[in-house]
Specification:
With 104 residues, the chain is mainly α. It has a domain of 71 residues: Winged helix-like DNA-binding domain superfamily/Winged helix DNA-binding domain (Arc Repressor Mutant, subunit A, Orthogonal Bundle), CATH 1.10.10. Helices cover 66% and strands 8% of the residues. The protein has 4 helices and 2 strands, in the order H-H-H-E-E-H. Strands 1-2 form a two-stranded antiparallel sheet. A hairpin with a 4-residue loop joins strand 1 and strand 2. Helix 1 crosses helix 2 and helix 1 packs across helix 4. The protein is elongated and about 70 Å long.
Length: 104
Amino acid sequence: MGSYRGRIDIIADILHVVRGNAKKTQIMYQANLSYKVLQRYLAEILEASLITFEDTGHYYMLTPKGREFLEAYKDYSRTNKTIEKRLNEIGSKKKLLEELCPNK
């Protein structure tokens, strides 16, 4: 089953690439995005001041606000994985209970 990336996940993927200063093509390939989707997200991320564009080198750089986003995302991601794991465990236990006491 494929994994769906939401808006926040895509932004985090882009920021991870930009952490080391990156050009548009690098971001597109490393974040696994189409050019059209990349353009939309870059505009949004630039407007939010998570990255800046360096004209002289033609690359994108992470801002302090972008670093703050990545730190918060790391915490969010860790918590989300823990919760998903617990929900799966609960679902398995519920299924077992339903199998032990089926409807007639």
